[in-house]
Amino acid sequence: MVIGALVVTGSIILVIALRPAPTASIYVTSLSGESEPSFITNGRDPAWAPDGSSIALSSEADGGEFSIYLADVVDFEVEFVTDGMDPSWAPDGSRIAFTGDPSSERPGVYIVDLVTRTSRFLTDGQQPNWAPDGQRLAFTGHDEGGKPGIYVIDVETLDVQFITDGQQPDWSPDGGRIAFVSRDSGQSAELYVIDLDSSEVTFVTEGDEPSWSPDGSLIAFTGSGDDGPGVFSVRPGETPVQVADGQDPTWAPDGQALAFVSGD
């Protein structure tokens, strides 16, 4: 079975038929939002390689389990990597962190080596996100009472540090801040940024699923649009701008386009 093919040229991305089962679809839009979003493929959790040469994403099988695939943009081959979801590339492109056993009561943070394809369990948790130094991962964990929090783990020593209450961490490109989501004040998700040196927490806007732009000047996120969930971009301290209908945005490596998910 042909799983798919992918082409990246500048900020134009084309993916063909990754898997038949998912109901969510991935689209790409320019930051300006002046043109209609382009359909990419069925699936979710797109994550570009640091050099832009390949893309990792999650695809749902008929039984509801997720797997991660890797698509090469040179020879267009798409190959299975491992079972799991929430892929996050290491800065050097050699490994992918991911959530393993996502449907279980105890999902775990894992790393898969892309040369050997062997996976290593790090800790209980989910939604891993690499630090720019490639030595640490931010992730969502839970305390004994089940409250979500942002934690950081050293991928070699496995030392874990609690950062703040919240979930869905996304590390800034300069390594000094983490964007995250909190729902402590009610049902509405709120987006914050924590400075890792001072521990100062700054409210950004209502929304969730944050993603820093490659230059660190903007945060894309999911907010409430006119027709349901919307993809927004915000410069901290300024007013958010909606660029598309959808959710779960992620930046292209060149910072000129956003991929996002539309559908359930």
Description:
The structure is a single chain. This protein is mainly β and 264 residues long. It is 0% helix and 58% strand. It is built from no helices and 26 strands. The protein has strands at residues 5-9, 12-16, 25-30, 38-42, 44-48, 54-60, 66-72, 78-83, 85-89, 95-100, 108-113, 119-124, 126-130, 136-142, 148-154, 160-165, 167-171, 177-182, 190-195, 201-206, 208-212, 219-225, 228-234, 241-245, 247-251, 257-262. A four-stranded antiparallel beta sheet has the order 4-3-26-25, with no helix packed on it. A four-stranded antiparallel beta sheet has the order 5-6-7-8, with no helix packed on it. A hairpin with a 5-residue loop joins β19 and β20 (201-206). The radius of gyration is 17 Å and the shape is globular. The chain starts with a strand and ends with a strand. 47% of the residues are buried. The model is unreliable at 1-22 (pLDDT under 50).
